[in-house]
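Why do we bother with holo predictions? Because pocket geometry can differ from the apo form. Keep that in mind while you read this record for zinc ion.
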Amino acid sequence: MGICNNPFTDDVNALSDEDFVLLKYAVATRRCYEKTGFSTYTELVENYRLIRPCPRCGSDEYIKNGKTPAGHQRYICKKCDLEYSTLTGTIFEHSKKDLCDWVNFVTMMCHNVQVEAAADMCEISHKTAFEWRHRVLATVSDYQKRTMLKKRVWIDETYLEDSALLSQPDWQPKRGLSKNKICIAVAIDVFKNPYAVICGHGKPSSKRIKDALQNHIEEGSVIVHDKERAHNALIKAIAGVDESYKADTKDANYLEGMQMVNNLCSWLKYYLRRFPGMKQENLQHYLDWFVYLFRVTKDKEKWTKVERVLRHLALSETTFRSSWT
Ligand SMILES: [Zn+2]
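The structure, written out:
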């Protein structure tokens, strides 16, 4: 439909600035509802959490106590008298923006759009966009702790240049090339569950590999790897079955045998390149988010990606540190 055939064009052009803002919000709210099934925080949170446990004592015995000025249900805990609302303890608490802004922002985070671009598209300040990203990342910060890979597990390491990726004003190259590289231990099982964790600097020792992966691979699993000796202690520790391929990118056997984990490493590197200048202490959070999205995508027959992330955010009780960048 061309703009001259649009019966709303004249009316919209005639609106005052204030009315135009109201119209934009009405349209955005409807789009949000059509996309997610929710148009307000209360609808979102109450859909997934019928019972609101007390954020202080955990009791689920409460009295409903009217609504906040923003329209969120207020509760008083019967045990400890704490007054709280639907949003207390969720990442949406104290947010002055509407749910539709969050939905747009989360959608962009699912596509790993750079934070400045996301701020622009959502019409929020850079400061708010950084804050929101930290809140979202905080909800997945212990996501990998429960990961347990099974049956057939590929393992490998991938390396990042400190200087290329990380912003460290006092950064000095260390002696020996490999010491300047951060090692990330990666693993993926036959069910396509991934795992990725920082594993120190430079080529890892047996102990570092064992410490990084031992608690996340089920005993007796087949460990598929590239004959790296540092893997042996891990395989022994989990009573694993050793299946190894000599690393040789011209060897079809190696490529096929290691394809699962080689692909994972490529995706991971591609993903991390989108966040130049991150602080080293935040790298693990980005790895957690990568693994989280990887698994969300895998389960997409059950939920759309954004819907699933929203559900996760609504259920999460993570507190976040505001000093992250
Ligand atoms: Zn309480």
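The mean pLDDT is 82.
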